[in-house]
């Protein structure tokens, strides 16, 4: 078998495995409402899982497992795709295991086999999800550690889940509602303190892995240049969008005790945004469009606020003059907003580009200046040097070259030699 055929076959097998795991995750998402249906039939609706707080988590799991399947099928040697698959599977497995244990251990004891062990190990699924997030941050975007000095932490973070699973098998040591009344906290009383210590250390390492992973991205960004820097900008952009949910979580924890709903919603938003950004970064998909996306989002956000406020002001102001029920008020306000939409959009977009997308604004200004000067320039050497300078300033290529077609009897023109083409690498 030739090396090319071997690589093609490996990619095909990796793609089949990745999408099989994706299908397994989809099956798990479908299984969760089925267990809720069984719990309602058993007249235990308080044990159901799917509510408003679970929807963001399910959405985040679907996004993570889908992005992971795409990455694993296209880049089978890159570990981030498989980690995202494991993350989505862990979240869906948590819901399936919880529904299985609630029905087979609490609602209908003995109805399902091994329900006790499923309840014991159900916290391990969410724990493994946190571990996967830490490794995803640590290995993004290159798929390797920032430097060999990070190996000790990677080994420690990989060993922590093993200790956590062993502690649950001996303990279980960690019992969450609604299983706290049907499962003994510790199976071996002599090992109670050891089990509690291992679980505490494992959780500390898992939570610390998130911090270490975030710090590794900062270290990479400070050292990165070129394409890698653009990849990390996508991840940083997605992480910045999670700051408002995190602030809401902290505020809710301080002011009341109903922060569980906010925590789940914020966690779902974070888990949905980061896989998308990481997938775009690893696949290097439209890396250089981030400035355009940010400027367009800011421009249209400001435009929406401006036109919405103007529309409301017109409706209220004209309503006082013509009456609240007059159809002329709505028609006049709508026509006014439609008339100022395009001019306002252009002015706001120019202001946003001038402030947040300076390179695009400077490039447009440079091209406009060169176009105005081009009409009056007749010296070919000066024109060639100015053209190369404009290309270098606006596009920043690694190399530029200019080819001019020599003048002959068949190509003679009334003016200087014609500019035939511009080549850039």
Describe the model:
There is one protein chain. This protein is mainly α and 425 residues long. 74% of the residues lie in helices and 3% in strands. It is built from 13 helices and two strands; from the N terminus they run αααααααααααααββ. It has helices at residues 3-41, 54-74, 79-107, 115-139, 151-170, 192-223, 227-241, 243-255, 259-283, 290-322, 327-356, 358-374, 380-395, and strands at 400-404, 419-424. It has a two-stranded antiparallel sheet.
Topology:
Blueprint: H1 3-41, H2 54-74, H3 79-107, H4 115-139, H5 151-170, H6 192-223, H7 227-241, H8 243-255, H9 259-283, H10 290-322, H11 327-356, H12 358-374, H13 380-395, E1 400-404, E2 419-424
Antiparallel strand pairs: 1-2
Helix pairs in contact: 1-2, 1-3, 2-3, 2-9, 3-4, 4-5, 4-6, 5-6, 6-7, 7-9, 8-9, 10-11, 11-12, 12-13
Descriptive key words:
two-stranded antiparallel sheet; 425 residues; extended
Strands, count: 2
> What fraction strand?
under 5%
Percent of residues in helices? over 70%
Total helices: the number is 13
* Biggest β-sheet: strands ordered side by side in the sheet: 1-2
Arithmetic mean of pLDDT: 77
SSE order, as H and E?
HHHHHHHHHHHHHEE
Rg over alpha carbons: 30 Å
Shape: extended
| N→C terminal distance | 36 Å
Q: What class would the helix/strand composition place it in?
A: mainly alpha
Low-confidence stretches: 410-425
Largest sheet: 2 strands, antiparallel
Summarize the structure.
This protein is mainly alpha-helical. Helices cover 74% and strands 3% of the residues.
């Amino acid at each position: 078998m030739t090396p090319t055929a071997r690589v093609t076959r490996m990619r095909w097998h990796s793609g089949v495995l990745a999408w099989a795991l994706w299908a397994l995750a989809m099956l798990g998402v479908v299984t969760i409402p089925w267990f809720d249906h069984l719990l309602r039939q058993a007249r235990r609706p308080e044990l159901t899982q799917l509510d408003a707080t679970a929807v963001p988590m399910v959405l985040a799991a679907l996004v993570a497992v889908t992005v992971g399947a795409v990455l694993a099928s296209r880049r089978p040697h890159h570990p981030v795709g498989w980690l995202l698959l494991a993350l989505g599977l862990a979240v869906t497995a948590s819901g399936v295991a919880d529904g299985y244990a609630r029905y087979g251990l609490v609602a209908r004891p003995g109805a399902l086999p091994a329900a006790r062990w499923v309840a014991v190990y159900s916290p391990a699924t969410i724990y493994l999800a946190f571990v996967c997030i830490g490794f995803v941050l640590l290995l993004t975007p290159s798929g390797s550690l920032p430097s060999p000095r990070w190996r000790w932490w990677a080994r420690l973070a990989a060993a922590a889940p093993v200790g956590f699973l062993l502690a649950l098998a001996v303990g279980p040591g960690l019992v969450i509602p609604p299983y706290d009344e049907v499962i003994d906290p510790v199976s071996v009383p002599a090992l109670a303190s050891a089990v509690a210590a291992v679980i505490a250390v494992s959780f500390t390492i898992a939570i610390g892995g998130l911090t270490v992973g975030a710090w590794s991205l900062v270290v990479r960004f400070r050292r990165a240049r070129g394409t890698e820097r653009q990849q990390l900008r996508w991840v940083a952009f997605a992480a910045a969008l999670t700051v408002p949910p995190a602030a809401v979580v902290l505020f809710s924890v301080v002011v009341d005790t109903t922060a569980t709903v906010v925590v789940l919603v914020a966690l779902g938003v974070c888990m949905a945004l980061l896989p998308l950004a990481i997938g775009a970064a690893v696949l290097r998909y439209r890396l250089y469009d981030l400035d355009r996306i940010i400027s367009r989002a800011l421009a249209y956000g400001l435009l929406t606020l401006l036109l919405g406020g103007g529309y409301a002001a017109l409706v209220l102001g004209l309503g006082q003059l013509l009456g609240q029920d007059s159809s002329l008020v709505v028609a006049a306000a709508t026509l006014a907003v439609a008339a100022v939409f395009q001019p306002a959009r252009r002015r706001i977009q120019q202001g946003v580009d001038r402030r947040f997308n300076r390179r695009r604004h400077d490039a447009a200004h440079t091209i406009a200046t060169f176009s105005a000067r081009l009409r009056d320039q007749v010296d070919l050497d000066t024109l060639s040097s100015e053209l190369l300078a404009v290309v270098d300033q606006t596009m920043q290529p690694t190399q530029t070259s200019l080819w001019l077609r020599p003048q002959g009897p068949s190509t003679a023109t009334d003016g200087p030699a014609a500019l035939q083409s511009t080549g850039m690498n």
